[in-house]
Amino acid sequence: MRGGEQSETDIYQLSPGEIKQLLLCILKPQQSGRCWLNRRQIDGSLNRNPSGFYDRVWQILERTPSGIIVSGKFLPQQPTLSDMTMYEMNFSLLVEDMLQNIAQPEYRQTVVELLMIVSVILERNPEFEFQERVDLDKLVKEAFNDFQRDQSRLQGAEKQDDMSAFYNTPPLGKRGTCSYLTKAVMSVLLESEVKPSNEDPCSIS
């Protein structure tokens, strides 16, 4: 080992106790000290989803007549909603089947975050629904383009195809990934036809 360098250790030379500690270090969710890119890579690789994730996707489908598509995999509203129930395992497997085409784990995790955002927006705005097929790839791309515009304006960064900086950005905060994803979703919804609602505070009875 030369000065300033650490020797690489073969995993097969580690003791069972050291292997256990290494696995705990890698698999422990939301471990402090990890960058957001690394967190998303690990969570995406392990197919970690937020609590109630599949229920949220079901609720999105209820407001998405033309279905959801990501990485070429399509999840239709029908016959999905008529043939299944929200809580059955077959629906969860169907959602995972839609996500399995995503090659990059960090991209998969970003899509999961996007679906949670879509669900919250629809839950809080009952007058909205998607008129066209929801293309998750397109929404992520629009969010990333908006992120790059801010990076170019604030830091002089050149636009590029590499999304590592976006993946490495915390989800929350003024310029977190959630803000860009939310903006992309709202842009699509505001172009859609708004359904009348009995609870609309702007309506005059």
From TrEMBL:
The keyword S-adenosyl-L-methionine is assigned to this record: no
Pathway(s) annotated for this protein in UniProt: Glycan biosynthesis; glycogen metabolism
Similarity comment text for this entry: Belongs to the phosphorylase b kinase regulatory chain family.
Membrane topology: Lipid-anchor
The keyword Lipoprotein belongs to this UniProt entry's keyword annotation: yes
InterPro entries registered for this protein in UniProt: KPBA/B_C, PHK_A/B_su
Superkingdom of the source species: Eukaryota
Domain named Phosphorylase b kinase regulatory subunit alpha/beta C-terminal: residues: 32-185
Gene Ontology cellular component list: phosphorylase kinase complex; plasma membrane
GO aspect biological process, one term: glycogen metabolic process
Location in or out of the cell: Cell membrane
Protein name, per record: Phosphorylase b kinase regulatory subunit
MF (Gene Ontology): calmodulin binding
Major site of localization recorded for this protein: membrane
Keywords: Calmodulin-binding, Carbohydrate metabolism, Cell membrane, Glycogen metabolism, Lipoprotein, Membrane, Prenylation
Functional note: Phosphorylase b kinase catalyzes the phosphorylation of serine in certain substrates, including troponin I.
